[in-house]
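User: quick one, sequence for these tokens?
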């Protein structure tokens, strides 16, 4: 990378054939904090084939939370076929704390993946919107839900009731 223009080289790396190169470029762009790359990162989040690259794109928004233009794409990514992307999207939405994501995070409480359900619970608590209370109670009362998920939901419920 050239020291005088790291951004241009990283933008080239985002188009690289190798997924790891694209993932590493996203991680480096995260540290730069340049908002001009946000549309490209959103495009990658929604369209890149390897899940690890889409996950890195979601994680970019978890660390760069000042821009809410990513929220619709992150909400869409809650329905990604890969659980690592869905979990990362839930975490990014919690970091951004946009209340428009609460309904979709509540829907993620029914995800087949325990990891995604846990991420949805944790990040609903971070957002702090009491609109999530009924969905959390429903999850706690689900006889088929596993104990650690129920315990996490109880803790989130306590936090929401304190808001």
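Assistant:
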């Amino acid at each position: 990378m050239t020291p005088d223009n790291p951004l241009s080289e990283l933008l080239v790396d985002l188009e690289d054939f190798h997924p790891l190169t694209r993932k590493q470029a996203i991680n480096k762009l995260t540290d730069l904090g340049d908002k001009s790359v946000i549309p490209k990162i959103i495009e990658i989040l929604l369209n890149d084939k390897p899940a690890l690259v889409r996950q890195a794109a979601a994680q970019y928004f978890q660390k760069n939370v000042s821009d809410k233009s990513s929220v619709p794409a992150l909400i869409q990514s809650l329905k990604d076929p890969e659980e690592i992307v869905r979990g990362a999207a839930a975490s990014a939405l919690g970091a951004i704390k946009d209340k428009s994501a609460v309904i979709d995070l509540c829907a993620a409480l029914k995800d087949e993946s325990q990891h995604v359900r846990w991420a949805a619970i944790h990040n609903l608590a971070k957002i702090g919107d009491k609109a999530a209370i009924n969905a959390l109670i429903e999850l706690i009362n689900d006889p088929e839900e596993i104990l650690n998920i129920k315990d996490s939901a109880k803790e989130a419920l306590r936090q929401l009731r304190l808001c």
